[in-house]
């Protein structure tokens, strides 16, 4: 599986719209997907088919032929792999960074008041401000 191809496929808003449509309901035909896309963007049937082909090449969409129709199905495996490889580790680090930035801003607040965590469960937080 080529991560670059998956990123390229997901970079286009129309292709993301197609993925969202298949997430909501798998097994849609080209005609159904064309109608959905045209509710937001004017696009020919050929244009929608071209986007679907790129999604298939990235293995984000698989198709099953039923009679004269081809049904499109979402394949979430490449998205999961992208999440595990790229997004998850950065999101985890961003979460830690967010907590540290919040702590830094609270410690550096100009009022000089800093809430500290309670000593025990149920206690009220202490502040550095003296009681009146």
From TrEMBL:
Domain HTH arsR-type as annotated: residue spans: 1-94
Domain of life where this protein originates: Bacteria
SMART domains cross-referenced by the UniProt entry: HTH_ARSR
Molecular function per GO: DNA-binding transcription factor activity
Compositional bias per record (Basic and acidic residues), positions renumbered to this chain: 116-132
Stretch list, region Disordered: 107-132
Pfam families, sorted: HTH_20 (PF12840)
Protein name: Helix-turn-helix transcriptional regulator
Biological source species: Nocardioides jishulii
């Amino acid at each position: 599986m080529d991560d670059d191809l998956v990123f390229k496929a997901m970079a286009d808003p129309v292709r993301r719209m197609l993925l969202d449509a298949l997430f909501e309901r798998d097994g849609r035909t080209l005609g159904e997907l064309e109608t959905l896309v045209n509710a937001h963007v004017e696009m020919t049937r050929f244009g929608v088919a071209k986007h679907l082909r790129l999604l298939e090449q990235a293995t984000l969409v698989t198709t099953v032929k039923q009679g004269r129709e081809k049904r499109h199905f979402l394949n979430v495996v490449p998205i999961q792999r992208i999440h595990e490889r790229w997004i998850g580790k950065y999101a985890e680090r961003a979460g830690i960074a967010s907590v540290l930035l919040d702590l830094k801003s609270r410690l550096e607040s100009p009022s000089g008041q800093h809430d500290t965590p309670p000593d025990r469960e149920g206690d009220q937080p202490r502040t550095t401000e003296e009681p009146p």
